[in-house]
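Entry 12.
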Amino acid sequence: MADWNESQRSDQGFGSVPRAGGDMQSRAQYDEGLRSYMLSIYNYMASGVLLTGIVAMLTATTGLTMAFIGTPLQWVIALAPLAFILVLNFGLHKMSQTTLQIVFWAFAAVMGVSISTIFLVFTMDSIAVTFFATAGAFAGLSLWGYTTKKDISGWGSFLFMGVIGLIIASVINIFLGSETMAFVISGLGVLIFAGLTAYDTQRLKNQYQYVAGTQMMGKAVIMGAVSLYLDFVNMFMFLLQFLGSRE
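Predicted 3D structure (tokens):
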């Protein structure tokens, strides 16, 4: 994700929000604001996941998925979510909060169309089991990332390189068609996005002090939801390779 926090550090003084050493009332207000901020992120993220699931199911059950499989449109739909990610990152400062919201919902809907093929490959029961398993794992990892006193900011570079490696390996395996390599990629994918869930949660928690009370806060909520949404969806897709029962 685009690192727009740097500008906030220079635009907003470090003393503009209460720190741990502040008076009790200020600290309580800060904690309440932080909880509200994180809850807003989780609400956006959960709503995006729900929209993606509904769109994916409708696309598959209405036959639209079968209609684009094997056509050039299949590649357009598969790559469309990446285009939305680029728009969200590079257009962040230029778009209004309302526009950013619209792009987020559109992104979630397009992602649903993109992953609708899972309903043609895996049984509905196994998809449901995997979804709830992912939800449980996500909740536990995010809670740990939020509450841990351990600084895990150093994980960022390592996990980012892991994501790049996953993308490269996945592209290579499209041509190789190796089941063993696909298994390894899925296993690494689960671990990497599990780590990113905890890392992103802590990052977003720490980020609050820089955006609290600024015009950027609304956008920060949406972009935070995008980060956690991607962690959840990717962890689900990789975990499905292990828990999913094929049709």
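Annotation: The radius of gyration is 19 Å. DSSP finds ten helices and no strands in the chain.
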